[in-house]
Sequence to fold (555 residues):
Amino acid sequence: MKSQLQRFISFAFAAADLLIEVGPGGEIRFAIGAASTLTDRRDDELIGRDWLDLFDPADRKAVRGLAATLGPQGRSGPLEVRMAPAGLGIGEPARRASLSACRLAGPQEWLSCVLTALPAAGETGADPGAGLVGIEDFVEAASRAGGAGANMTLVEAPGLLGLAQSDPAMCNTLVQRISTLLRNSAVDGNAAARLGEARFGVTHRGGDSILRQGLADITEEGARNGIDLGLSAHDMALDSGGLGQDELLQAVRFAVNRFSTQGPAAALPGSMTQAFEQMVDTAIRRMNDFAEVIREEKFDLSFQPIVELATGALHHFEVLARFKDGSSPFEKVQFAEEIGVIEKFDFAVCTRSISAMRSRDRERGAGPLRLAVNLSGQSLENAVFIRLLLALLDENRDLAGRLSLEITESARLRDLARADQVIQQVRRRGFAVYLDDFGAGAASFQYLQALAIDGVKIDGSYIRRIGGSRRDDTLLRGLARLCGDLEIRTVGEMVETAAQSDFLRGIGVTLGQGWLFGKATPVPVWTPVSTPKQLEPVAPSRLRGRRQGAVESWS
Fold:
């Protein structure tokens, strides 16, 4: 009776779907729960079977390893596993479960295991990479783990890229296998990450033989299905080598960012000390290059139209920076923020934009030019930049109503009260202020609460998903309604189809920007699109099958 009570207590405590007890020889001695859900067999049919038969052959080594680590009254897990494919049709997703094990006190050295069903990869709402964190969380976890015996392994599987299009189900299966292996190898919950569509990272301790063998097994699994994953792994020692904690964090971020953008071809270092040295050398070179870009104005301006959705008329242009060396505007601006010189670049763009407006005013017969200029949130926290910006606006008060500023979330505002003071000084001079990329970051609604502004630009990720799901469309309606109630103008960016434009207009979004209305051009010229039809309900079918375009913005 006591043993029965122990069983049910452990089962209830774990909130599991299936409890099994395993004898010394690996035979199942007891089973209770939703066995058929996970195994296609009743509880009583499991008695006497080898417990490893319950699991996918590729996962049995990990299961044995989990059991081998248990001493008397020891506990281990959870370990994500795939159940044996008995009874599954070809091509159906494998059933996944979370496995935990312990040895209960008592005369019998039985292994007590609980299994909890997990959503199968490919099911609605299931993410084959669920549980993997993003770059920043991974960088922080890796830097905290720095020390003797800690390693970071960066994994690339380029074969996943084509597979995502040709066989999404198999791609999900392999991503799930990689994700499970990395999570089971990681030092903590944030130490396994997806760093790109086909790039991953994990921080682990001790020998990496289990990780290496797991990657080899996944490669073999892909080969059995006729897939060459091209899987490779690069190891880096996390021994700080005399670096301070802040320096170690910077070195890890440098190495991870290089891998996430370039992969193994980035000539990755083998240790954090080497990474830090590479980072310093690269930073000095880039700082000198960027200083020259600003000093000699080695950048051009492009202009993308923003139109009134209700009438189709041009409202204004957004100013976009384009670098003459062809480098990525996003990377240039991100680097400028990292090294603390973004305000110099922002001021250079502002002055060039005003010059463009003055040049247009001098053209005979040309209409007045209305522009929006991007400003990094980091610039608004620089006292010298604020003084120069306000002086520039004072000198050009006649442009009030024609020149507006868009504050981007590329760098998060830290002092919202101070930022709002600056914004109100700008608005009192008659210049409108917008929040760019609204909804993309966790801080967006905090900004909306703390900052009095004229408008927001809804992030293009929302626009791309129009018609994809009722939930996303409802969320977008809510954003538009919230801004309408606050009497804040709204701009929908990355609009590429008439259906998207109709939807935005229908929910009250005021302005639209995107390839439907025109791409960015070297001069601010615009050819009107056809006038929108009278507002009418938009069929869901019209909102699907859209092409995903590039983001026409430097932020």
About this structure: The first strand starts at residue 18 and ends at 22. Confidence is low (pLDDT under 50) at residues 4-14, 531-555. The chain has three domains: 2-118, 135-282, 297-531.
